[in-house]
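A student in our group prepared the protein record below, which I am reviewing. Here is the record exactly as it was handed to me.
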Amino acid sequence: MRRRDFIKVIAVSATAWPLAARAQQAGPVPLVGVLMNFAESDPSAQPLLAAFRSALSKLGWTEGGNLRIELRWGAGNPDSIRKFAKELVDLRPDVILGHNTVVVGALARETQTIPIVFTVALDPVGSGFAANLAHPGGHITGFTNNDPAMGGKWVELLREIAPRTAHVAFMFNPATALPIQSYMPSVQAAARSFAVQVSTAPFHAKDEIEGVIAAQARNLSGGLIVPPDISNVVNRDLIIALAARYNVPTIYGDRVFAESGGLIAYADDRPEEFRHAAGYIDRILKGAKPADLPIQQPTKFELVINLKTAKTLGLSLSSGLLSIADEVIE
C-alpha cells in the first residue's frame, strides 16, 4: 500500500472510531409512554401535547432522534384506558406520562416499578398514588390540578356573572371524576356566604345529562358548576347546548368550555402542567427518582368569559369582572 493511501485509511478510521464509540455509548433510545384520556380527534388535546413536545425539545429531546414516544388515547372510556395502560406497560418504557386520575389509576394497577408522571390527577394522595405531596415515596409523581379553594371561586364567579343564582348543582360522573369531593368544602363554604344552596348532580351516562340541566332550569335562580371531569369534557358540546337551551348560567372548570361557547371558565393552566411534566420526565430519564420529586399543585389559573353567550343569556357583565378576565371571547 502506498504511503498516501495508508495515511488516508488511518485518517478515515480515526474519524469513524469516535462516531462508532459515541453510538455505542449512547445505548438504546429512551422510550416514553403517553396515555391521554381524550379522543385523538379532540382539539383540546392538541395544545397539551404541543406544550409537552415543545418542552421536551427545549430540554434537548428530539422525538424520532434521541427519544421515542408511544401515544395512546383513552377517550374517556374506562375499558379503553385499562387496555392501553396494559399495552403501554408491556412495552417496558423508561417512564409513562398519565393524563388524569382514572388513567393513573389504571397504570398504577399494571406496574409498581415503571416511573409514572401525571397531570390533572385530582387527589394523588387520597387516590393512593403517593404517600404525601412533598415526598411521594414511590414510582408516581407529577402535577395535580387540585386546588381545593377553586370550588369556592366557582361559586363566587357564578354569583358575580349571574347575581340571581340561589341554587347551584355540581355536575359530574362518579366513574370518571373521583375524588371530586375535595372541592366540596370550599364550594359549601362559599355557598353559605352567598346564601346559595348547593346540591350534587351525578350522572352515569350521556342521556342523563339533560335531566340534570333541565332540573336546574325549573328553578329560575338555578345555576350549574361543571368541574374538571373527562366525562364533562367529552360531552361538552351537549352540555353547552343544553345550558343555552334551558337558559342555565354555568361555570366550567376547563377553559375549553368557554372556547366552545360556554359562559365562563375558571381553571388551572393545563398546557403549563404538561410543560412541567416534560421537565420531570427529563429528570427521570437522567436518573432522578419519582419518589424524590414532589407533587406540585397548580400556581397559574385562567378566567375566560364568553361575552356572546352572556348576552344570549341576558346577563350584563360588570366592568370589574371583565377587567380581571384573562380572556374575553366576543
